[in-house]
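User: I'm writing a short report section on ligand binding and want a predicted complex to refer to. Could you take this sequence and zinc ion and write out the structure as tokens? A short remark afterwards would be nice.
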Amino acid sequence: MLIMAGTILVALAGVYVLSPLFKEPKGNLEAELLAETDLDRLLNRKAVVYRNLKDLELEFHMGRLGEADFRRLESGYKAEAAQVLEKLDRLGADEGLDEEIEKAVAGRKARLFAPASANCPACGSGVTPGKKFCPDCGHKL
Ligand SMILES: [Zn+2]
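Assistant: Sure. The structure tokens for the complex follow:
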């Protein structure tokens, strides 16, 4: 009886210890590695890049990242996103997503940078947020 109880206990412990190996992968990286088709892989990659972009914006917003670093990293992620989207396009998936993303990114950026660019850094006159050049002195904003 004691031996049987011991055997059951060992078996249960074994199941408990090994169970993480049989669970669904949670991380995007694992999902990416396990994905079977190009489409799966690209969609996962896209999700990763978008999450990175979101994290990046959060870091910047919390002041843990300078604007120069933010812009450099952001353009890197966006370039990667563009590549992924181009490949997805070739596979015939996600039509119209490109525009959707550009719109989403532009919206986020407008919210992030609007207060900072209210005045021209060169002449100090008021500037409409989103404009590329100062209407008074022509300084690049
Ligand atoms: Zn100006």
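A remark for your report: Residues 38-61 form the longest helix (24 residues). The pocket of zinc ion is lined by residues 120, 122-123, 125, 134, 136-137, 139 (CB under 6 Å).
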